[in-house]
Amino acid sequence: MSKRESKIDRLSREQTREFLRRSSLTYLECCISLMLTHLTREEVAAVLEREAEMVRELG
User: Fold this and answer.
1) Residue 1 pLDDT
2) In sequence order, which residues have a C-beta less than 8 Å from that of residue 43 and are 6 or more positions away?
């Protein structure tokens, strides 16, 4: 039964991780849409490029 519990735990962790991944992407898409209602596409792209660079630097 221990193997079954560990399989259930593993599946639970994987599904939780996938849910959080999808939720994060959906949130990002909503933020970008909101930005596009108040900024030009070029401004939004510049902000996203700066943020991407910061993420890369933080590793």
Assistant:
1) 53
2) 35
The Cα 49–Cα 55 span in angstroms is: 10
Comparing CA positions, the residue from 44, 47, 24, 28 lying closest to residue 36 is 44
Cβ 32 vs Cβ 44: under 8 Å: yes
DSSP string over 1-59: -HHHHHHHHHHHHHHHHHHHHHHHHHHHHHHHHHHHHHS-HHHHHHHHHHHHHHHHHH-
Tell me the pTM.
0.76
Considering only CA atoms, give the Rg of the chain. Answer: 18
For tokens 């910061």, name the residue.
Answer: 54
